[in-house]
Amino acid sequence: MAGLELLSDQGYRVDGRRAGELRKIQARMGVFAQADGSAYIEQGNTKALAVVYGPHEIRGSRARALPDRALVNCQYSSATFSTGERKRRPHGDRKSCEMGLQLRQTFEAAVLTQLHPRSQIDIYVQVLQADGGTYAACVNAATLAVLDAGIPMRDFVCACSAGFVDGTALADLSHVEEAAGGPQLALALLPSSGQIALLEMDARLHEDHLEQVLEAAAQAARDVHTLLDRVVRQHVQEASVLLGD
Amino acid sequence: MAAPAFEPGRQSDLLVKLNRLLERCLRNSKCIDTESLCVVAGEKVWQIRVDLHLLNHDGNIIDAASIAAIVALCHFRRPDVSVQGDEVTLYTLEERDPVPLSIHHMPICVSFAFFQQGTYLLVDPNEREERVMDGLLVIAMNKHREICTIQSSCGIMLLKDQVLRCSKIAGVKVAEITELIQKALENDQKVRKEGGKFGFAESIANQRITAFRMEKAPIDTSDVEEKAEEIISEAEPPSEVVSKPVLWTPGTAQIGEGIENSWGDLEDSEKEDEDEGGSDEAIILDSIKMDTGEVSNIGSQDAPIVLSDSEEEEMIILEPDKNRKKIRTQTISATQVKAPSKKPVKKRKKKRAAN
After folding, report:
1. How far is the C-alpha of A162 from the C-alpha of A159, rounded, in Å?
2. Given an 8 Å threshold on Cβ–Cβ distance, is B167 in contact with A207?
3. Does residue B163 belong to the interface with chain A, where contact is any CB pair within 8 Å?
4. What ranges do the domains of chain A cover?
5. Of A26, A21, A17, which is closest to residue A230 (Cα–Cα)?
6. How confident is the model over A108-125, as pLDDT tens digits?
7. In this structure, which topology does domain A22-243 adopt according to CATH?
8. Which of A9, A36, B32, B36 minimizes the number of CB atoms within 10 Å of its CB?
9. Which fold has domain B13-196?
10. For chains A and B, what is the number of CB pairs under 8 angstroms?
11. Which residues form the Exoribonuclease phosphorolytic domain (chain A) (predicted)?
């Protein structure tokens, strides 16, 4: 990747975007009939599918039931055809486990679990094509799916990735930008209150630039929120039209 | 091995988290120059592997693990290699001095525990604090104040300024720790050159026993005496407890009566039939029930002691006996125990004679 200019002199990135610009986002809710809630999101070329079952009775060991809140169970899976080279292990490898844990942590904080004691909410996320920002796409898809399932949440959970090149913070990294090895930050935000549900960063970034990158990611997450909000309203409108209200 | 809560062999969530964090911290931050590990381009390369064993868990294993890993990498020496054209010569440790890895920087993790939705922040939580914390934020930095990794876990809601504050604190801590590490590495090198003793055994301080040391918690003991007297005066006198062990046979002794069998409440009718059936076994339990204050009395009665000789009475059936209740209520007054206890025994005796 030597010699690839991530940010040109005129301020354009490899795919022609500006520094703070997001990729094109398209989302649909209610894609599956079986699941309680489902959603599909495309962020640029990254495609993620999320499915939610619940709240239902705890499967497996009853001992895991929490007496005062619901258990949130997340599984992340990346299709074997999602990356350039065929992926050997879609589940079970450490990276997938970690992603699952992070998703669980994010949604345990956002979903109002106190309303469903002793039950379980399952969130399954599948990445169909990974072109950078997979965690963000998964979180956004899962948020829409949880909303589609009608599970009450504190707020939307919007996520976006951010990077730092040549003194400028970039929002919503693509695979090329991620592979270049610069710092990458993944942020999951509850937009109304500005609270951070999950913050994860890799590679070296000087402390002084941290604020700038955080701000860029937060702004991008808020932009994603506007978009997702519009998607949800449109979906509800369509559904109410079909129901004949 | 590190803590009672850790089960062997299970790849738990904590393990995955720790592993991934360290991987990201060490690998993605490019602290080691991996290009220098190449021997022959496209063919031979050195593979470095870090194995971490946790020996004792007293909180904040992430920080300890990251320090251990990076110090181990700094301390490590690999065998020297020379390439001449197509020939690769690997020198043994005796032929040439081993070569250290080229390390760009030392990323060190600092953990912050959050309590009460972010009101309180503790650096380097110990085990007890970890158990009750709301969430954890881990920041890995190096001494040049470059952040290598940030990871928030356990779903706490953070605010941006909290994160920035933590990063400042982390910067200070990391500088201190890096200095400590440098000193330790220099010390070790010096000792090795001078021919002194070095190694794991030496690094454990000799004169300190750390296993049973507990921190003294400050307690106000000024009015202990008054409190104690108050409690004693208000309390009831303790009940008389006479504990005399009864030796039935060599190897079988008894102290006390045990808790009353409450199955008797449910099976009153059945009980009576079985009593009349004259099972000798019931005697055993009667006698057992009536003991404590009455060692001498029991000794004088033949029936209960005979049970050990008789072959018929080997099996003990725990049958609830209605008489037992009477005995139970009167155990406190030792004198009255005699009367009821004799009754059932005599009853049985007659039956046996009849049989």
Report:
1. 10
2. yes
3. yes
4. 22-243
5. A26
6. 889 999 999 999 999 999
7. Ribosomal Protein S5; domain 2 (3.30.230)
8. A9
9. Ribosomal Protein S5; domain 2 (3.30.230)
10. 94
11. 21-152, 155-219
